[in-house]
Amino acid sequence: MKVSTPAPWELLPHRYPFLMVDRVLEVEPGRKAVALKNVSMNEPFFQGHFPGTPIMPGVLILEAMAQTCAVALGGGGDSAGRLGVLTGVDQLRFRRPVRPGDQLVLEAELLRKKGPMGKCRVRAMVGDAVVAEAIILFAEVEADQLL
Fold first, then answer.
1. Which residues, at least 6 apart from 27, have a Cβ–Cβ distance to it below 8 Å?
2. d(Cα 45, Cα 43) in Å, to the nearest integer?
3. Stated pTM of the model
4. Between 97 and 2, whose confidence is greater?
5. Domain spans, the chain
6. Do the Cβ atoms of 40 and 81 come closer than 8 Å?
7. Which of 71, 121, 126, 145 has its CA at a distance of 20 to 30 angstroms from the CA of residue 138?
8. Contact between residue 98 and residue 126 where contact means Cβ atoms under 8 Å apart
């Protein structure tokens, strides 16, 4: 039996143009998440990022990976009112370019969480090819602490 997953904007505080996840395919709060990003030529960053040979900026791939990690962290569970804030990135590797028409599948697995600090392994794939991977470090903070 297929269980419906919430829309990304129900799980993340981000909104356009910074919401980099189009759809959440699977979520096990506190364990893992799988999300999807459809990369189209209509994305505003393609106008200026290598216009003759458009590729998705690596920093935006990393942001999509971090947002998938945030979904794995909370997933709409008992993390209400808290945000997963990026604190570090280890072992980041970009394996191949992401181009318009590609569909990024983002897989995040929570490795460790102790108190407000945690670590997540994330992979971005196009088809069977890994295009990027990283270990993402985060802190979970109360939303009102960021004001």
1. 5, 6, 11, 33, 34, 71, 72, 75, 76
2. 6
3. 0.87
4. 97
5. 8-146
6. no
7. 126
8. yes
